[in-house]
Amino acid sequence: MILFHIHDAQLVISNRRAIKKWIQGIIESHDKRTGDINIIFCRSDYLLELNKKYLEHDYYTDVITFPYSEEKKVSGDIFIDVDTVACNAETFRQSFGNELLRVMIHGVLHLLGLDDNNEENAHIMRKAEDTALTKITVDPVQ
After folding, report:
1. Distance between alpha carbon 3 and the CA centroid of its chain, in Å?
2. What is the number of other CB atoms lying within 10 angstroms of the CB of residue 115?
3. Judging by DSSP bridges, how do beta strands 33-42 and 63-67 pair with one another?
4. Closest to 124 in 3D by CA, of 138, 110, 137, 134
5. How many C-alpha atoms does 127 have within 13 Å on its Cβ side?
6. What's the gap between Cα 118 and its chain centre?
7. Which helix (H) or strand (E) is 103 found in, with range?
8. How do the domains of the chain map onto residue ranges?
9. What is the distance between the alpha carbons of residues 67 and 78, in angstroms, rounded to a whole number?
10. φ/ψ of residue 19, rounded to 5
11. Around 18, how many Cα atoms within 13 Å sit in the side-chain half-sphere?
């Protein structure tokens, strides 16, 4: 089950059913099943505190993923900083909605075991994001 949570952000997610179906399709394309996935939208300061507390990183980031998958069942928590997503959207000249979808699927790909910890893995991750983004046409924040 995929659930969306708004922690301390000013955000309304639209087209939830289509987004959930898209995420499930990406998971199934990796020969896995969807378990319990929580996508939590929050602000910069909250995600910074999580980053410090759990990952010992003292910097802002757009997404942090806590996987708890089992075998073929993909589960975990994906925390998304909507402030950083908004800044990145402006920097990369993307709509907020498109950047938000990219960050959502980036978190899902982490749950699937992909990483972006070096240049080669980052390239693989980016290609997987691009492929996934061709499979959705809805705006998450209409």
Report:
1. 12
2. 11
3. unpaired
4. 110
5. 7
6. 19
7. helix 96-111
8. 2-133
9. 8
10. -65, -45
11. 12
Res 97: pLDDT:
94
Specify the residue for token string 């996934």. 132
- Amino acid present at 121: N
| Tokens representing residue 105 in the block | 């699927």
Average pLDDT, 10 consecutive residues per value, the chain (142 residues): 90 92 97 97 94 91 93 96 95 95 97 93 95 92 76
Pairing assessment for the beta strands 2-6 and 63-67 based on DSSP bridges: unpaired
Q: How far apart are CA 51 and CA 39, in angstroms?
A: 16
Sequence-ordered strand ranges (E) for 86-140? none
> How remote is the C-alpha of 137 from its chain's centroid?
17
Identity of the amino acid at 80: I
Q: With beta carbons less than 8 A apart as the criterion, state whether 8 and 41 touch.
A: no
Rg of the chain (C-alpha set): 14
Q: Specify the amino acid at residue 24.
A: Q
Q: What fold characterizes domain 2-133?
A: Collagenase (Catalytic Domain) (3.40.390)
Single pTM value for the model: 0.93
Q: Show the tokens assigned to 138.
A: 């809805």
In the block, residue with structure tokens 């070096």: 118
Question: What does the alpha-carbon distance between residue 108 and residue 28 come to, in Å, rounded to a whole number?
Answer: 12
